[in-house]
Amino acid sequence: MEKKLTRIIAAVLVVLMLATALVPVLASANAQEDYENAQAELNRIEKELNSIKDTKKKQQQEKANTQKQVNLVKSQLSSLNTQIATTSQELAEKQAELDEKKVEIYETDELFKSKLKAMYIRRSGNMVATALAVDTFSEMLTAVNTLSNISQADTALLQKLNEEKKEIEAVEAEIEEKLAQLEASREKQQAKQTELAGLLQKVNSQLSATEAEEAAAQAAYEEAKKARDDAQEELRKEFAASGGLDGFVGGDWMWPVPTNTYISSGYGYRNIFGYREFHTGIDIPAPEKTPIKATNSGVVTVASYQSTGYGNRIIVDHGGGYKSLYAHCHSLAVKVGDYVVQGDTIAYVGSTGLSTGNHLHFEIRVNDQYVDPTPYVR
Ligand SMILES: [Zn+2]
């Protein structure tokens, strides 16, 4: 009986011990999965946020353009109002001039008529007298000529005045037409102003909606970032607690310089100054001090300066025979023995060692053999 109980207790203990031993492995796999999910969610939200920001930028541009047009129409309207005022003034002056001319014509005409009348009366009243008084036929002709000359001069004056009146009327018509054109332009600009005001209102309300969307996406982003950081921290803790690199500890591989994606020199044979050389990694140009991220989780096994080639470099051991190397760094952010989690900043881009410009020389090694990193990180 006692023996059986001991056996049961022993069995329970074994199960408990096994369970305890298994827990970190299972949890680690979960933590890795959690981390990758959190990172994927963060990437998704970041993409969304960037798309909203692009939209906002476009709408801000549209708003600025519309505002510019509003200002332009406003200044055109102001100029038109000035022109209309000036032209109206001109028209009023021309109309006054015309009125004066009409009065002049009227008065001249009246004077002419009364003169004619006076002459006619004198002539007809003295017809007999004239016939008798005029001594000669020649004298009579002179009298008739005088009458005719006066009449001709008056007629010419009237004609001249009427021509002047016509000229004034022509100018007046021109001014009136100009004024009508200006007023039509003003009406058109006013319609445009109304239309633009509507457009501006629409653009503003769209922009407000986008800004609200952006704020919501920004909040979601912060939340997702915190979730990712928490998952990363959890992964780091469990990774540190496990204390070993029995197997590959990472998940999917990550591009080591998220801000720069161009490869200036790929993996494999290349010609340099006429020499055939094997390039053991890929070169990613980036500005000095651009953060370099751990491509996967692991333990830092090298973090120092090598004068002959790599310059400041980091090697991270990911377990399972996988290692990654980061060379020509400006400076390093981790030290040997550190546990790093994928996405941690481990160093900064520079041009130390055998390098001609700021770039990251990035390698992946499997069982200490160089491999092309591209299929892993792309
Ligand atoms: Zn290189």
User: Main beta sheet, described?
Assistant: 7 strands, antiparallel
- The CATH topology of the largest domain is given as Helix Hairpins
List the total number of helices: 4
Overall number of strands:
12
Bound molecule types: zinc ion
For the residues shown, what is the average pLDDT? Answer: 86
* Radius of gyration from the alpha-carbon trace, in angstroms: 51 Å
Structural class from helices and strands? Answer: alpha+beta
User: What is the N-to-C order of secondary-structure elements (H for helix, E for strand)?
Assistant: HHHEEEEEEEEEEEEH
- The coarse overall form would be rod-shaped
Q: How far is the N terminus from the C terminus?
A: 64 Å
Oligomer: single chain
CATH architecture annotation name of the largest domain:
Orthogonal Bundle
Short description:
The protein is an alpha+beta fold and 378 residues long. The protein is built from four helices and twelve strands, in the order αααββββββββββββα.
Give descriptors for this structure:
three-stranded antiparallel sheet, binds zinc ion, 16% strand, Helix Hairpins, alpha+beta, 4 helices, 64% helix, 378 residues, seven-stranded antiparallel sheet, 2 domains, single chain, Glucose Permease (Domain IIA)
